[in-house]
Amino acid sequence: MRLTKARVQGYRSIIDTGYFDVEDRKTILVGPNEAGKTAILQALQKLNPPEGVQLFDPLRDYPRARYDEDIKNGNIDFKKFTVVEGHFTLEDADKQELPEAYHSIIYVFGRRLDNTVWHRLDGGPNCLTYGELEKDLQRICLHFKATSETQGEQSSVQDAIQSSLESVVSGLTRVSRITAERSKQISDWLNKYFKYLDEDNEKEEKRYDRITDLLVRPSEYETVLKKCNALLPKFILFSNYFRIKPALHLKKLSERIERKVLDDDQYDYGNICLLKFLGFTAKELADAGDTTRFDLSRPEQYEKYKAQLDDRDYQLNAATIRLTNAIREIWNPTQDSRDANKLRIKVDGQYLKVVVEDDLGVEVELDQRSEGFQWMVSFYVVFFAEASDKHKNSILLLDEPGQSLHALKQAEFRETLSKLSEKNQTLYTTHSPFLVGTNELDKVRVVEMVNRTTGTKVHLCLTATDSGAILPLQEALGYDLAQSMFFHKKNLVLEGLTDMWYLEALSELLKADGKSGINDQIALIPANCASKVVYFAIILHAQNLKVAALLDSDTEGDQAAKQETLVNVLGFKRILRTKDAYEGKVANAEIEDMLRDTLLQIAKDELGWDAIAMAGMQICRPVVDILSSVAKKDFSKYKLAKAFIRWSRDHSLVDLQQNEIDQASNLIAKINKALS
Fold first, then answer.
1. Which has the least CB within 10 A, 109, 143, 438, 567?
2. Rounded distance, CA 440 to CA 370, Å?
3. What's the CATH number for 1-128+215-233+393-468?
4. What tens digit of pLDDT does each residue of 183-229 get?
5. Distance CA 277, CA 385 (A)
6. 230 CB contacts (<8 Å, ≥6 apart)?
């Protein structure tokens, strides 16, 4: 299963995040410290947590400032209040477990403040309501009564037919859901009085068949619900605090566990996970190496002690291989890196040690290797321990990963996180610009806290009232611009971020089809708006770099293109307009108009904005205006662009309209020529 949407409310600093979309592989939550990023991950973990994770505590977890008003005064019933909710889609392997009619469902699962859970199915066959049965049941009841009378039954039989039906449907309203249990009760009633069904009455025969067909749905619905619940992924939360000690004293840890006085709950948590991963308790490993428990002068005692040590070593070796293989897939140190890729977990007396072996066979304790490598080892130990052999069906929640790394190492570590997300859907928090790639801004969700009254909010678009919330994004873009000044001699300045997304996606589609995309030497620089294009052009031109600009053919683009400074800096040949490649009928075409038909279909299928009919009647109107009029307050150019990016990852160039391919090819050819 894949998480597609989530919502958290009434937890710590969170009043209500609102629903926020989750990407298929990697979602990045950015924002300043104290914005509530960690609280979001903690709440998500409790949706379906690993064994042993503490669940919601109303007194401790509900926002303190509102506890008296909401809970003590009875404004909120914590037995009915949903704290966290997730929407999940099925993967191909999941669909094989379910009837075909349910393959397109959304499984919705929630956990309340009292830790009870609820679930439902959206998008498939609806659950049966009493309103769908009521009239037919009443009429077939009258039929049974009439038939029984003609067969000479006493009036008490007719009364029994009526009263038994009333008992079976007692308490139901038209909107009441028919459960599998209630469905069986109604079926039993039908079977009991089936003998009064007049086989010559075709109308009532059909009514009986219709009712029995409908009564199959509740059982099927609940069976699918149970199967979906069994498929629900575990949420594995990993914090930087969950670190493994390179040398762990087993006896002391065993005593702390026994006395329930862990010296540092978060630090010891990593050590306990290590033992869980190895399949031992601290006491078992401590006792295994305790020679005082055996009389080694007696052969049978010596052999028993030796067998115990051998069994321990075999198990440690198996765990070592498992851990090493997992890390090798993700962590690829360079040849000159001090990080080795061979781990060993061994027991030396009362010490459990995690060491790293280099290519010369020299063993060095884990804490002498890089921070990134230590994080990776600690992460996998916690992951393997908490996932309980369900690694492929786990969602990773990473709280500020790699924050102790140097800035440039963080940029490298970003690739490690991407590799992790290939196997497990991943959400991670950060306030570092180096953990946000400029090519993955569509995966970003902005977390901010305006004030305690409003609480933590999650924004789908790259806008927020708190400038600190989007600082990582601004810095990431700024860093990318700075890098382009040194490494890219050719730069294309764009009006906005969505323009960059469309061009990058189109370029990748063209390249995948064997055609020419945007030259790899060209850096795409979003200026945030048309009026700022000139400033970016001046800065880049001053560095003796080759610069061109791409502007929409709308009013703002026209005004920017006519700026004397821009013309003097770039010249007319390097001021490109969307109309230069656009072949349609929209006078003030934006880049979205070059993908008109495809975007209209994506908007309908992915976002629920059906504007196809309107666009067919208003062929001269910009597609953004049309979609905005349909979606109203829900419209966002960011949403539309992100939907196109997702679509492009699952489709090929031939899935675009031919005129769209021609326009994209033409525009990119002009870009490459302008910066040749």
1. 567
2. 26
3. 3.40.50
4. 999 999 999 999 999 989 999 999 999 999 999 989 999 999 999 99
5. 5
6. none
